[in-house]
Amino acid sequence: MTAAARAGRPPLRIVLCDDERMVRTALRVILEAEPDLEVVGEAATGAEAVPLVRSLAPDVVLMDVRMPEIDGIRATEQILATMAEAPRIVVVTTFENDAYVYEALRAGAVGFLLKRADPDELIGAVRLVARGDSLLFPAAVRSLAATHAAATAPAAAPWIARLTDREADVLRLMATGLSNHEMSERLGVGPQTVKTHVASVLAKTGSRDRTQAVIAAYEGGFIMRNT
Which residues pair with 13 in a beta bridge? Predict the structure, then answer.
């Protein structure tokens, strides 16, 4: 039993969005075997997903990136644009190197999972994003962002000059996928100090979360200029 269950806290509420019933059923079976996780709704299309998520207000949404009517990217955008306290959205895909995944991350998804992920990875991912962390796979994000940046060849973003040296260090470490605790140990500062720097980085890059900040770092030329 997890610490959350032992403490009597309510389970994390999850909505599954996938056009394949068998996929939704498999995900439900895996997740609901855990006492601290509860699937509260399912949607087979993006058009179904948006109003369902708005009405249920779950903690986490597992969103298939490719669905009929409205795909996972548009559904993610609409959910995040219309909910004051939006859920954490993780997109689910078959292929790691997928332009759809990149666009979903840019739209505000906090990370992605491959459909071939094992049960422990799935469960761990849900718990991770529910507590506010991003589900980053640095090598995959680097590959996707580098491809996009190469295609657009952007000029250096103006926010780069506004970063302090420590904020720049934090952003570089964020791009490697380190958690706040890991960055605290690496930089030799307290966790609250790291949290403050992360918040400042998000504000300066105009990002909703850590995932978007890392994408901004690649697209804005920060990573390319500093690695």
Answer: 38
Residue 33 has which token pair?
């075997």
Question: Token pair of 141, please?
Answer: 């994000």
Beta bridge partners of 37: 12
- Model pTM? 0.77
Residue written as token pair 């779950």: 58
Q: What is the DSSP string of 33-48?
A: TSTTEEEEEEESSHHH
- Which has the closest alpha carbon to 81: 69, 90, 89? 89
Q: Distance of CA 111 to CAs 2, 97, 158, 218, Å?
A: 23, 13, 26, 16
Q: What is the C-alpha separation between 210 and 198, in angstroms, rounded? A: 8
pLDDT 10s digits, 176-199: 878 888 999 999 999 999 999 999
Rounded CA separation 210/214 (Å)? 6
